[in-house]
Amino acid sequence: MFSRVTRPPKMATKFGLSVLFISFCSLFSPTLSSSITSNEIESWCNKTPYPEPCKYSMKQNQKTFIPNQEFESRRVAIELALQSALTAQSHHQRLWPTLRNDREKNAWTRCLNFYNKTIDELNLALDSNIKSTNFDTQTWLSAASTYLESCRDTINDLGVSDSMLPLMMSNNVSKLITNSLDLYCKPSSAFPQTYRDDFPTWVKEADRKLLQEPSPSPDLVVAQDGSGDYSTIKDALDQAAAKSSGNGRFVIYIKSGVYKEYLEIGQKLENIMLVGDGMTKTIITGNRRNGTGAVDTFHSATVGVDGGGFIARDITFQNTAGRSTKPSSCSPAIKLRSLCLLPLRF
Ligand SMILES: *[C@@H]1O[C@H](CO)[C@@H](O)[C@H](O)[C@H]1NC(C)=O
Ligand SMILES: *[C@@H]1O[C@H](CO)[C@@H](O)[C@H](O)[C@H]1NC(C)=O
Ligand SMILES: *[C@@H]1O[C@H](CO)[C@@H](O)[C@H](O)[C@H]1NC(C)=O
Q1: A single GO BP annotation from the record (predicted)?
Q2: Which residue from 15, 206, 259, 282 has the least number of CB within 10 angstroms?
């Protein structure tokens, strides 16, 4: 049905350029061009969560890299995700003439926007001009994945899933993003994650104590029944921003309850620790979705954290559709905008 469309997708130029660029590079750096054998593709892809899409896209986009070098592996994994997102985007653009009604057109428009954002995030993750940390890259990859999830949600909300899901979501973009995220999350031989007392060794001694103490003494208490200093977390955070001094921990204890709040822990708010009454008792939830599907999940994350040193325990952060996430840095559908959470061993 789509083969009739002859207009070349815009992205063809970009793709052509990147292929050129790779071959250009390989002229000058023979060590990077060691062409990867199909055995190497097999064994590299078999280590990813989705080996089949990995192999398929490796064959589509002949990549040259040394598969046992972590940096290169990560980069190639993201490039595969980007390539498949660009293909999906141009496929999308060609669907327009086939749409049958306003709801399908509405879903199409929103999803194209989400696909564009996914591509923007993947480009950020690949941009070597940006000085970024692994956490930054994880955040961009998670955002890329979340945008696709938003497209799916939009299609469902608009009630056009039967016709539109197969058209717009049957690609391997999410899986390839998960494959790249996995390379960042896995303890690797190059950067082994070491643990002491079940905590990664990068956790400071003082924080380790706070995380182990049965009830660390709070600077502020939030309780819905009025028994604390504040009844909303937002008020407590505003107070923390006003009070926060130096680099000590600021501990906010949030008593059990379901908090329907959207929290922004801005850059100036460093070293915040949120402590709940338990993962099933203290739940921060947000439900910005209102049936129109007009939700930009990434920017309506239940909790957005830009401040450094954020840690949390005994809390569940929940977003729409009942999806929840435990504080792990490896959840692609994470509803926290920052991944600088403590990856405790569960
Ligand atoms: C997705 O990957 C599978 C292999 O798992 C492949 O058969 C399929 O053609 C791929 N789909 C797209 C749209 O690239
Ligand atoms: C998405 O990207 C395509 C290709 O770059 C562009 O033509 C289109 O206008 C963009 N759409 C939105 C909604 O940003
Ligand atoms: C639902 O979301 C749309 C888009 O963000 C907004 O314009 C509208 O006011 C919202 N409706 C309700 C009832 O919140």
Answers
A1: cell wall modification
A2: 206
pTM: 0.56
User: Which of 42, 56, 80, 178 to probe ligand 1 with, by most ligand atoms within 8 A of CB?
Assistant: 56
Span 22-33, pLDDT tens digits: 323 333 333 344
Better-scored residue on pLDDT, 131 or 79: 79
For a mutational test of ligand 2's pocket, the pick from 13, 106, 116, i.e. the residue with the most ligand atoms closer than 8 A to its C-beta, is 116
Q: What pLDDT score was predicted for residue 200?
A: 58
Q: What does each C-alpha distance from 124 to 40, 65, 70, 297 come to in angstroms?
A: 28, 21, 19, 18
**What phi and psi values does residue 282 have, to the nearest 5 degrees?**
-105, 115
pLDDT of residue 344: 34
- SS3 assignment, position 129: coil
Residue 53 has pLDDT above 70, yes or no: yes
- How is the chain split among helix, strand and coil, in percent rounded to 5? 50, 10, 40
pLDDT at 163 exceeding the cut of 50: yes
Cβ(290) – ligand 3 distance below 6 Å: yes
Distance 172 CA to ligand 1 centre (A): 6
Contact present, 329 and 343 (Cβ < 8 Å): yes
Q: Is 116 in the pocket of ligand 2 (CB under 6 A)?
A: yes
- Mean pLDDT, rounded, for 37-49: 86
Collect all residues with Cβ–Cβ distance below 8 Å to 201 and sequence separation of at least 6: 194, 195
- Alpha-helical segments (H) within 49-101: 51-60, 70-95
3-state DSSP of 100-115:
CCHHHHHHHHHHHHHH
Across the range 38-58, mean pLDDT stands at 89
List pLDDT tens digits, range 209-236: 777 777 788 999 999 999 999 999 999 9
Residues whose CB falls within 8 Å of the CB of residue 269, separated by 6 or more in sequence, listed in order:
237, 240, 241, 244, 307
- As given in the structure block, the two tokens for residue 157 are 């909300």
CA of 10 to the centre of ligand 2 (A): 10
Using DSSP, state whether 200 is helix, strand or coil.
strand
Question: C-alpha dihedral over 58, 60, 65, 71, to 10 degrees?
Answer: -60
